[in-house]
Design goal:
Blueprint: H1 6-9, E1 36-43, E2 52-56, E3 62-66, E4 76-78, E5 88-90, E6 99-101, E7 121-127, E8 130-134, E9 140-143, E10 148-151, H2 167-176, E11 209-210, E12 222-223
Parallel strand pairs: 11-12
Antiparallel strand pairs: 1-2, 1-4, 2-3, 5-10, 6-7, 6-10, 7-8, 8-9
Length: about 240
């Protein structure tokens, strides 16, 4: 009996692809209604690669922020204060050359860019009515001047430098993040498990181009082109 393809099994409610949101520490966003907060703990989250700061606001409520390098329990962070590590300011108020992270895409969204462990961006200057920022990918992107960003380098750098050494360690790492692992090539499967499977290895007795009218779960391999053969021009009459 054949099996459904992996892209067909996803999203059907099985435990293999459960989101695991019950293990999340919660949203990690820069607040808009507070001016300062106190760091009460440094925690780790399955859903975030960087360490998180558990902060307490003046009204007694708690939240989580991305932890920059050098932050410790008892430190105070401000939103719109001085230019110091861990504080959050608008891009127009941050000096050129300052290292930043957790940059907002639109003013007030809490931060969308530069949020991974060990990464950092840099303010390059003003470009017209926008602020130019150097992203960790070395690409340059412009932001609205009132978008906020947090100062400093995100903690947790060097996370990818530690070797996993064996597949079992990676299995547990991927399972904690609910990632599909191990990934098996369709050509390595049996014929009942995948259209490309079978004992003939890489040389298949069927084309690897999916039918044009195939449903989304069955579109494996190359998508059928609109036309085949040599491109030939059409004769145009001039008179």
């Amino acid at each position: 009996m054949g099996k459904n393809l992996i892209q067909q099994r996803r999203g059907k409610g099985t435990s293999l692809f459960r989101a695991g949101s019950f293990r999340s520490k919660g949203d990690v966003k820069t607040p808009t209604k507070y001016t300062d907060a106190k760091v009460v703990d440094i925690v780790t989250s399955t859903h975030h690669s960087a360490p998180l700061m558990k902060v307490k606001y003046p009204d007694g409520k708690t939240g989580h922020l991305i932890a920059p390098e050098g932050m410790k329990v008892g430190d105070k962070v401000t939103f719109g204060g001085d230019v110091e590590r861990g504080n959050t300011l608008q891009l127009k108020d941050i000096p050129v050359g300052t290292l930043i992270h957790n940059v907002e895409a639109t003013p007030g969204d809490g931060g969308k860019f530069i949020r991974g462990s060990g990464v950092v961006g840099r303010v390059l200057g003003q470009k017209g009515d926008s602020i130019l920022v150097l992203l960790p990918s070395k690409k340059r992107k412009t932001f609205h001047p009132t978008c906020r960003a947090t100062l400093g380098v995100i903690a947790g750098g060097g996370r990818k430098e530690k070797p996993l050494l064996k597949a079992g360690v990676k299995f547990h790492k991927m399972r904690a993040k609910n990632k599909y692992y191990p990934k098996v090539s369709g050509t390595a499967m049996n014929a009942v498990a995948h259209p490309f499977g079978g004992k003939r290895s890489g040389r298949k007795g069927r084309p690897t181009i999916a039918p044009k009218n195939a449903p989304p779960g069955k579109k494996v391999g190359m998508i059928r082109p609109r036309k085949t053969g040599r491109a030939r021009g059409t004769r145009v009459r001039t008179s």
